[in-house]
Amino acid sequence: MVARFSSLGIPHHRFPPFCPVGPSPHQQQQSSSWDFSPIPMAPASNHRGHQRISDLVQGSRLLLLLVVSNPLLCQGEDYAPYCKNQTGECRIPLQNLFDTATTVANYNQRLAREMFDEFGKQYGQRKNLTPKVLSSCHTTSITTPESKEEAENTEDKILFRLVVSLLHSWDEPLHHLVTELLRSKEASPDLLSRAAEIEEKTKVLLEGVEEIQKRIHPEEQEKETSYPVWSELSSLMSEDDDVNKTTFYKMFHCLQRDSSKIETYLQMLKCRYTTC
Q1: Are the CB atoms for 17 and 33 separated by under 8 Å?
Q2: Taking the CA of residue 245 as centre, how many other CA atoms within 13 Å lie in the half-sphere pointing to its CB?
Q3: Are the beta carbons of 236 and 251 closer than 8 angstroms?
Q4: Which residues contact 58 (CB under 8 A, 6 or more apart)?
Q5: DSSP conformational letter for 237
Q6: What is the 3-state secondary structure (H, E, C) of 62-125?
């Protein structure tokens, strides 16, 4: 696992330990709490390929749920320093949860940028493609700070709500994006791999952010999160190549934009509550 983190340039010591359920750590391979190493993708775009993605996503999600479920239980000295000299429940420090969340958010932002750049090289030069994209994201209705300075002056409760709303709003679009890329004969294995990976990590990040929010503002958990509904499935599945490619391009553009916002807001929240 250390080697897998190193391949991404991510220091493994920043991650809290995995608290096992069932066999002891000596009876099974240890894993990090939020595993976001690259998904080994097969290039074939068929049903078996889709099942492979599904299996990988479910496996990683299970690891997440075991780790960030509330309360977090770590027993024994195997999990020092998190559980050392503590009696009763051992909760992973907020610093480590923020470290992991911001690292995943940064990784997602990079994946989104790479997907947009790759797709843009192939289709971004099409006539009138860019103007159609600039102001038509499905998340435009979410009112966000217009500048970094404005975000820095925004109440932390609002920043948490924005992050959760943005992450929720991409759940369905990312699922259909991966599905349609699997069906496409033109999608490269790299593009498909990145899309499947960011779909998984967005789910992971959402649960992690909600856990952090619950620690800091438990009263917010009772409030229902509102987020815009994506309604462009028919365009994404269109047999009209221009409509289809424009929808893909718009999704990549909007995902890059929103991933950058999420990463920025989480970094600001981290600096307010822990060490930057």
Answers
A1: yes
A2: 18
A3: yes
A4: none
A5: T
A6: HHHHHHHCCCCCCCCHHHCCCCCCCCCCCCCCHHHHHHHHHHHHHHHHHHHHHHHHHHHHHHCC
Predicted confidence (pLDDT) per residue in 197-247, tens digit: 999 999 999 999 999 999 999 988 778 888 999 999 999 999 998 889 889
- CA dihedral of residues 137, 139, 141, 147 (deg, nearest 10): -90
Number of other residues whose CB lies within 10 A of the CB of residue 56: 16
Q: Residue 162 gets which letter from DSSP?
A: H
In DSSP notation, 201-224 reads HHHHHHHHHHHHHHHH-GGGGGSP
In DSSP notation, 24-55 reads -TTTS----SS--PPP---S--SHHHHHHHHH
Decide: pTM greater than 0.85.
no
Q: Strand, coil or helix: what is 276? A: coil
Give the tokens for residue 31.
């894993």
d(CA 35, CA 103): 11
Q: pLDDT (tens digit, 9 = 90+) per residue, 113-142?
A: 999 999 888 776 665 666 666 668 999 999
Length of the chain counted residue by residue = 276
Asked whether 176 and 236 are in contact (CB, 8 A), the reply is yes
Cβ atoms of residues 160 and 213 within 8 Å: yes
Q: Cβ atoms within 10 A of the Cβ of 191, count?
A: 19
Tokens of 217: 């503002």
The neighbour count for residue 177, using CB atoms within 10 Å, is 24
CB 237 within 8 A of CB 180: yes
- Amino acid symbol at 264: T
